[in-house]
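Here is the promised in-class demo. Please do not try to memorize the tokens; focus on the logic of going from shape to residues.
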């Protein structure tokens, strides 16, 4: 038997999936699914109300300001959906506050996050790191005509430049210990990737 909570989560997931169907990879439902999975992994270590965490992870990018003329509308959309499904008002408000305050852009002005908000923010940021982070950076570069790699000494924006300018700063911004641990693992992978990439560019490799 499915619990009522699982039922609500399943319904929200289905709604979010259909609403994000047209959104390109990297910001579509694939991102939401990864953040949802990672948020559950972090919650198992860090605690926090699982229902609030899962709902906020699912709904956090629904009204992303990038796609709504600069206005962040996730809270508004989340409230409408959760109300419709008969979710308790206190939970609706908590989820709304989280989705309204976790984005990187709001870092300076955001309200302090609850433990649940901290978990979802960590999960969202973790999706910019590791193998996924590398792929998303390459996809971004392809979409905006930015090279992934620019040889040393040339001052041009690049994907690897973005690793240093933003992504390698994320580990220190993690809220939870579990988030920091996963960030470290994913950052290490990216650094190993850069080392391998540069070694290949230089024509190096191990020969017997
Ligand atoms: P989000 O909305 O998920 O916080 P962004 O829209 O800023 O993230 O970025 C989406 C993805 O594109 C991320 O993985 C991010 O690292 C990557 N990205 C953002 N800006 C750049 C950039 N200037 N160069 C390369 N990749 C970028
Ligand atoms: Ni996100």
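The designed amino acids, position by position:
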């Amino acid at each position: 038997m499915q619990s009522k909570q699982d039922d609500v989560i399943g319904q929200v997931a289905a709604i979010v999936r259909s609403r994000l169907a047209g959104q390109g990879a990297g910001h579509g439902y694939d991102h939401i699914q990864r953040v949802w999975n990672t948020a559950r992994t972090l919650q198992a270590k860090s605690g926090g109300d699982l229902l609030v965490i899962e709902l906020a992870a699912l709904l956090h990018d629904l009204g992303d300001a990038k796609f709504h003329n600069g206005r962040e509308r996730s809270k508004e959309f989340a409230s409408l959906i959760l109300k419709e499904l008969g979710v308790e008002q206190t939970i609706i408000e908590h989820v709304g506050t989280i989705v309204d305050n976790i984005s990187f852009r709001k870092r300076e002005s955001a309200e302090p996050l609850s433990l649940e908000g901290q978990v979802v923010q960590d999960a969202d940021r973790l999706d910019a790191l590791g193998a996924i982070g590398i792929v998303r950076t390459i996809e971004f570069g392809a979409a905006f005509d930015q090279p992934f790699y620019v040889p040393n000494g040339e001052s041009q924006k690049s994907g690897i430049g973005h690793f240093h300018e933003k992504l390698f700063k994320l580990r220190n911004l993690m809220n939870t210990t579990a988030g920091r641990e996963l960030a470290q693992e994913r950052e290490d992978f990216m650094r190993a990737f850069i080392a391998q990439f540069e070694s290949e560019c230089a024509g190096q490799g191990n020969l017997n």
